[in-house]
Write a structure and sequence with these properties.
Elements lengths: L2 H56 L5 H7 L1
């Protein structure tokens, strides 16, 4: 193999490796942001449920079946 061809192949390899790593990092970042959004939504739902349960424990005048249906 000629030295020039070898240099071209090595350059192409490292260029490919660098761009692939950058794309991978971007995908990981996007995935992490989606996970955070999903977890925040679940947390919001759980907070709402805890609030209702606290109301049920404190206030006996609330219609239990109505509140459970809302959950």
């Amino acid at each position: 193999m000629s030295p020039f061809l070898l240099l071209v192949l090595i350059k192409n390899y490292f260029t490919y490796k660098t761009t692939t790593k950058e794309k991978s990092l971007l995908l990981q970042d996007k995935n992490q942001k989606n996970t955070i959004v999903m977890l925040q939504r679940k947390l919001d739902v759980l907070v709402d449920r805890v609030i209702v349960l606290e109301e049920l424990a404190i206030n006996k005048n609330i219609d239990l079946s109505q509140k459970i249906a809302q959950l």
